[in-house]
Amino acid sequence: MPTFAGEEEPAMPANDRLKDIISHLPHKPGIYKFFDDHQIIYVGKAVDIRKRVSSYFNKSNQHNKKTLKLISNIRNIEFTIVDTESDAFLLENSLIKQHQPKYNILLKDGKTYPYICITNERFPRVISTRNKIADGSKYFGPYASITAMNVLLEMVRSLYPLRTCTYNLSPENIAKGKFKVCLEYHIGNCKGPCEDLIDEESYNLHIQQIRSILSGNLGTAKNYFKDKMMEAAQEMQYELAHSFKQKLDILEDFQAKSTVVSNTLTNIDVFSITSNEKCAFVNYLKVVNGSIIQTQSLEIQKKLDETDEEILASMVVQLRHEFESDSKEILVNIELTLPLDGLTITVPQIGDKRKLLNLSLKNAMYLRKEKESMNEKAKDTNEVRIMETMKKDLKLAELPKHIECFDNSNFQGDNPVASMVCFRNAKASKKDYRHFNIKTVVGPDDFASMYEIVTRRYRRLLDEGTPLPQLIIIDGGKGQLGMAVKALKDLGIYGRMAVVGIAKRLEEIFYPGDTLPLYIDKKSESLRLIQRIRNEAHRFAITFHRSKRDAGTLKTEITEVKGLGKATADKLLAKFKSVKKIRELSEGELTAEIGKSKARILLEYFGNQTNRSAPAAI
């Protein structure tokens, strides 16, 4: 399959180069690769390469932030043509695994899963290994759970006495008597092939049964031990019969724990997915003869806000490859189309297969719940740490779980307002935010305004019996802090909570009665939180002040238009809210609202205002 790339043209601007590359892309199935300045950052598949790649650049207003970031980093595009959509799908997954691009979801945890290996030698050993070597040995796995693998390995070793030594047990070496039996023979864990105490045919019969067990078929071994038990019982060798009965019980107990729904189910792969905004959680069950022989649950971080269908399709291919599955039937919990020949993909609704799928989904949901719980605990720990730091930095008596911050806003004394923002457990509690219209102060007096709003706020809390905050922050220096303290003293609650002021210029923290400010480390989490609270209070106050000022300006301006009348002005303001929107209305729209003659009066007024505000030529 030939690979084509955009030619390097240093003189051509990046956007023009990409447009040129896209214009030469083929209308054929294949894969495309996006590069930044150094490496592959994304691999995708397409039925029509040019259409798919063009969609990134032609529909930018429909993309989310993550996709827009990907597009902004693209410096070059390469593509590979393939024969079918199926080939494109497989090649895409292969390239993702090889290059691990930053914007593709993929399995890249670096884990090496263990196998159970039946060695390719005379009198084979059954061992665990992480290195799969093409030496003729038979490998089973890989196993996602080491515990599950060890349970299976332990069961095999308890059923069959196998050698564990690494001797070369060739007929010549055994005939020469090179080896002696070890402790494993004396305690009954080995039959002593090193001294020819078991023939190769009997030993290999055990190996054959172990292969069946590891393949998920316990029937052969169960029948063998059942026959042996009956033979021993008929010959009145009751101790031997009992030992075979114990081995049969081990197999049946293992099968009872492993069989999920029905032993009539054959070779099936089961996949389920559930997701939240940031991650997807996928569970995979590999089922043989009704028994789960492999299971894996994964958390997948979303890179480009991929859909569940996109993520699951990718995981099906990657996990089947990882766990070497050749099953032709796949069960999933969402509708899924994979362009792969010979696969049957279904969403079962009833019966044993549905029960099996529900088990898989239950595992995926458990992983999601566990991860989300861990994230919430991490957030809570973060918040407690920040509050502990603030308590220490500000020398507070108690943890500042409830913080309130006040700020004033006015323009040359006009429309004075104030705001109070509330933070609980280091997070903004917007439902508790409050605006204040200054009622008792005339002119630009920030000190008196602060006294008024602090008094009003905490008189109300006292009247309602609402708990007081642990910390009050005043956006301002000593003067405003002093007025806030006076308000608290007049209410009789000074000393029941901490109160500090923060001055903007040097980020100084002032305490009541202390002439010297406190300087907190600029990198401190507590200072960053104080700044965030202060900035939020300032934003909230400014927004309120602007809306109030604009409303006052509009009412004055519209009602002063001669020939318009107050009722007409109020009607327009009630409907369009701002003079800006009224100015943007066409003559026809205005006529429909207030009539032709009044519409002309208003348009004439706006025209005169525009001419008057135009700068004089110098």
Automatic annotation (TrEMBL):
GO terms for molecular function: DNA binding; excinuclease ABC activity. Residues 280-488 form the UvrC family homology region profile domain. SMART domains: GIYc. Keywords: Cytoplasm, DNA damage, DNA excision, DNA repair, Excision nuclease, SOS response. Residues 27-105 form the GIY-YIG domain. InterPro entries: GIY-YIG_endonuc, GIY-YIG_endonuc_sf, GIY-YIG_UvrC_Cho, RuvA_2-like, UVR_dom_sf, UvrABC_protein_C, UvrC, UvrC_RNase_H_dom. Gene3D superfamilies: 5' to 3' exonuclease, C-terminal subdomain, GIY-YIG endonuclease, UvrC, RNAse H endonuclease domain. The keyword Cytoplasm applies. Pfam families: GIY-YIG, UvrC_RNaseH, UvrC_RNaseH_dom. GO terms for cellular component: cytoplasm; excinuclease repair complex. It is found in: Cytoplasm. CDD domains: GIY-YIG_UvrC_Cho. GO terms for biological process: nucleotide-excision repair; SOS response. The keyword DNA damage applies. The UvrABC repair system catalyzes the recognition and processing of DNA lesions. UvrC both incises the 5' and 3' sides of the lesion. The N-terminal half is responsible for the 3' incision and the C-terminal half is responsible for the 5' incision. Interacts with UvrB in an incision complex. Belongs to the UvrC family. This is UvrABC system protein C. It comes from Adhaeribacter aerolatus.
